Amino acid sequence: MPDITSTDLDFAGQEGRSIVQRIEQLEAELRGRGLVVKKGSAEYYLQAQFDGDRRKVWELGRDGLTGVEATLRLVKTFQLTSMQSQEGLRHFSLVNTVIADTCPKRLPCPTTKYRTSDGSCNNLRHPEWGKAFHTYARVLPPRYADGINEARLSYDGGPLPSAREVSQRAFASENRPSRKVTVAFALWAQFLAYDLSLTGVTIAGNGDAILCCHKEIKNNPRLLHPACMPVHILDDDPYFRKYGRSCMHFLRSIAAPRSDCTFGKLKWSIAGGEDMLPTNKSLPCASKDAPCFASGDKRSNQNALLTLIHGVMLREHNRLADRLSSLNPGWSDEILFREARRLLCAQLQHITYTEFLPLLLGNKVMSSYGLSPKLSGYSFDYKADLNAAVINSFATAANRFGHTLVQDDIEMYSSQGARHDESTLQKFDPSLLHSKGSFDALIRGTLRQPAQTFDSHVSNQLKNQLFNDSGYGLDIIALNIQRGRDHGLPGYNEWREYCGLPRLRNFKELESIMDTAVARNFSRLYGNVDDVDLYPAGIAENPLPDAILGPTFACIVAEQFRRLKLGDRFWYENGGMESSFSEAQLQEIRKVTLSRLFCDNTHVEAIQLVAFVKQAGWNPTENCRDGKIQRMNLASWKNEPVWT
Question: Which keywords are on file for this protein (predicted)?
């Protein structure tokens, strides 16, 4: 490394801050010209997914971008190599520089039996691990063209194929229902995906959603916001050409400040007469007649099924709180909330690891990664040195496997088993749930309707009409591919190597692990087998013998859930912790199934034993009241020690 002084660091920091200020001036000009996202457009609803604490997101993005621009200044000034910029600059701290105020603040961690709401202080040595508004973890170094933040290029130095072209040529839109899993499985996959990750995207300092595709911007490239990384649409695109579209909106993720504060690469109510989530008229909602529902995640309104599963969890939380209150009448409302939440979190972990993951990953992968919960007793496997944060490749690629499982339409069934209605998954319009009886009818539909098969066939609703506006929408597959490039994800071949699989030497070898037609399409799209993106190849892989996923995605997903299990101080099976359940309580938690949650929180009278799998001889439909679908006994929570 060259000799970089504190003066050099200050100069780079000042330059980084100046660049951010110039971007803010551009944002003001764009607003003045009316070049902002139009309310009600597909771009508007895409942005609405990421609306959390807008001010906090903007501040984090500004601080992270300042550090990135300062790093780029150092790279340019000292002509650093990619290795020097990625590894050498990590030894230079922002502390005591002019941009020290962009460093994340560390807070003390109190001793408690309850999780924090933002995930902080789960790990007492590293309070930021797994925290909301924090960086994703990485298991492979990022692949940026400049070593810092410029999107990956092909191995010959040219651009990668358009993400839309990859989606259009390699992914079909055919109806291929699963022979095994239900819509409930696909719904749980999306529920988990949203619970585990939300990637913040860049917003303007004034709160505007940034516009990337517009005729005026195309004619005057100076007006293109630096955070824009639009997806190019080819002239011969069979769907978008009839609308004259040549550009698909895409904003880069915010640049999160590095937790170690060093220079370096980019890191990335009542409704229908039933208890339901409270409504909030201020939320972005497509329906003019019925407001959207408020939950901890604005994406819960993305479609009626997501709102449905959030509603089930609300009901279960309140059911637990009522029962705990009757057992412990002296508990305050705050203690009831915390204890019910603690128990609900344990239930969700148990359902995920005993019912969902075995279907997704198969028994061999479950065993290899030690994912299966114990049948009795405590676990003492907690690892304080394991970062349980969400892995970048999981959040931006493998965790999005569920998009291939989505049905175009959702079925509804009466209590007599008659299919009486069908609804399209509308953008941010869960108004269906305001109708009496719709909640139970949708639950029955999730249990009876098969999900789509996991493969390179994707619902037309997602591939061409995502957040449909004026006849056309966006393409979720193209956006997923673009997000992987935005985050510097290495190509598919590097992930195979990471997972212990043989590296592919040519496209012919690709044909042996996926559908031949898809492999040949990849060979026409990419110049080198090492160029192939992780997401489309991971989706196209042949599944493992007893699993839904193929080997590469199974590896990434399994590693993520291994970390979430072993690196979680509050894991429900842990013994010897302030948060530990008693052994009697733990045995009751082990009775929980998704079918039981549906039984306890709806008017559905009969459900198959395993809600994620279609009814079969080994998976019969049982009456919710006859005891075959086990029920927790909360008697062992009487006089439970609490923390105030």
Answer: Glycoprotein, Heme, Iron, Metal-binding, Oxidoreductase, Peroxidase, Secreted
